[in-house]
Structures are given as C-alpha cells and as structure tokens.
Amino acid sequence: MYDVIIIGAGPAGLSASLYTQRANLKTLIIYYDKSSLEKAENIENYYGFENGISGKDLYEKGIRQAQNLGVEVKQQEVLKIEPLINESANFKVTTVKGEYKSKALILATGNKKNRPEIKGIEKFEGKGVSYCAVCDGFFYRNKDVVVLGSGNYAISEVNELINIVKDVEILTDGEKGPEFRADNVKIVTKPIEEITGKDRVEEVRFKDGSTLKTSGIFVAQGVAGSLDFAKKLGVITKNNYIVVNENMETNMQGLYACGDCVGGLLQVSKAVGDGAKAGMEAIKFVRKIL
User: Which of 42, 68, 261, 284 lies 20 to 30 Å from 161 when distance is taken between CA atoms?
Assistant: First the structure.
C-alpha cells in the first residue's frame, strides 16, 4: 500500500510527488498519456532556464527527478478509482495491470477534452449524451444504449452499464474495435456521421447511410482523465473543472486535484505551484491519520 498515489505525470503531479516523497511518504505516480507539455516547442516564461527549454525536455527531466528521489512511476492506464470504507487505505486505483491502494490521492492529469468531433454530440449533452456511466447509468435502466470508444476505458464503461441497461453496444467511430468480446455486446466499427433526435438522443446515423436507434450515448473515447474520475467519485465539478479550495482539497476527504484540471491560469508555473500545495496538504492528511 502507498501513502500517496498521484494520477498524472505532468508538472502538477510531479511537483506534488517531490514534496510527498521528501516527507518520507511512499509515493506512486501512475500515468498513461504523455503530458501536453511535450507539445511545447520552447518554453521561455518558466523560471530558471535562461535560454528556454523544450516541453519535452522539461517533462522528461521532471520524471527523472522524481524517480531519483525514490518515487515509483508506472505507465499504466487507470480504469477506475474507488473510495474504501473501514480499511487502512482510503482509495483503490484499478489499472489495466493491477490494483493499488493509498491513504491519499491526487488527481493531476490535466484537462483532457474527450468530446468527439461528431455532429450532434454537443447539442445532446445532458439529453442522452453522457460522459459518466456510474453517474448516469441508472437513468437508462432497461433501455438500449451505446458506448462510444475503442479502448479499455470504453470497456470499463460497458462493464458499469451491462447489468443496468437492456442492451449496450460499442461504437468505435471507425477505429479498430477493442480487444473485448461478449455474447451480449456488439461492436460496430463504422464511422459515425451524426447524432440525431428531437428533444433527446434517438438515433445514430453512420456515414454509410445506416442508422441505429438508441436512448443514450456514453462517451468514453481515449483514456479517462481527472474530470472523469472526479465525476464518478461524486466530487464537485463546475464548467468542466474540478472544484477545490485554496488547499487543493476536493469535497472528498483525502482527495486532492491540481494543475489544469482545476482551471485558472493554464501555465506550467501555476501547475507546479498547485502541485506543491496539493503535496504539502496530502502530507498533513496522511500524518494526521497515521
């Protein structure tokens, strides 16, 4: 078991880990997608680099710095985060390769935009289009729904829905289907043209002219991010950001969020500061319950 698990290896998550590890707390960073920082050709507004530094170099140096301090870093896709009750740990993180438990948890995967570029998606958000099976699956009990995605995240959403809804299919929107088969789950790989309906989602129209009737669409493209996990945990969010106080605390005890996923100035300097604060507050929390 770990004292602190951090989801995300960008500036916020790595900064948090430097504080928790130096406080002698057993710390694990789990990340999957590389940070958007890597896309920055040259960063000239971050303290300490007189000639600037590429985002890729800054990102890689940050990971090595954390590892040199003793932080464990695992590149695995996180599928689920669950709160634990009446256990020595407060959180369980499930990845494609295993399960990890911790006393405190920090979300720091940035602000991922998982809305696909499909006509009608935005129009029907909250009217048949959902981004959280745990949150909204109950409203579709005994109805036909689809999950939009082509990877492990889509599979995890199917598993949440399969015992609630009448029927669920996976739509990959032209991508290769996931390595997943079940007698009662159909995988459709045709590209999608449009989501249609009157007041709510009623139909998916494919580019080959065929259609599929459905009551709901659960979007699970790519991999889950901090906002996805926060919603599933019942953490308060607003305008697609996680709500935190001045100490980077969410409304769930022991759960912190930092960096782009909490909004504000979307800059490396702010993310590093957020991470430092989240790390220090996680230290206080863990020491208080030891």
Answer: 261
**Contacts for 122 with CB less than 8 Å, ≥ 6 apart:** 115
Enumerate long-range contacts of 198-201, CB under 8 Å, 24 or more apart. Answer: 199/127, 200/124, 200/127, 200/128, 201/124, 201/127, 201/128, 201/129
Amino acid at 285: F
- Report pLDDT digits (tens) over 58-110: 999 999 999 999 999 999 999 999 999 888 999 999 999 999 999 999 999 98
Alpha-carbon span 78 to 97, nearest angstrom? 9
Cβ-count burial 120-134 (b if 16+ within 10 Å, e if not) = bbeebeeebbbbbbb
How far apart CA 20 and CA 35 sit, in angstroms, is: 21
Bridge partners for 27 per DSSP? 4
CA–CA dist 99, 80 (Å, integer): 9
Q: Which tens digit of pLDDT belongs to each residue from 166-179? A: 999 999 999 876 66
With 0-12 / 13-18 / 19 or more C-beta atoms within 10 angstroms meaning exposed / middle / buried, residue 86 is: exposed
Rounded Cα distance between 137 and 218, Å, is 9
Count CB-CB contacts under 10 A for residue 22: 14
| 3-class DSSP state of 92 | strand
Q: How far apart are CA 19 and CA 275, in angstroms?
A: 9
Instruction: Tell me, rounded to whole angstroms, the distance of Cα 80 from its chain centroid.
Output: 9
What SS3 state is found at 80?
strand
The model's pTM: 0.87
Contacts by 120-125 with C-beta closer than 8 Å and gap 24+?
120/194, 120/195, 120/196, 120/197, 121/195, 121/217, 121/219, 123/195, 124/195, 124/197, 124/200, 124/201, 124/217
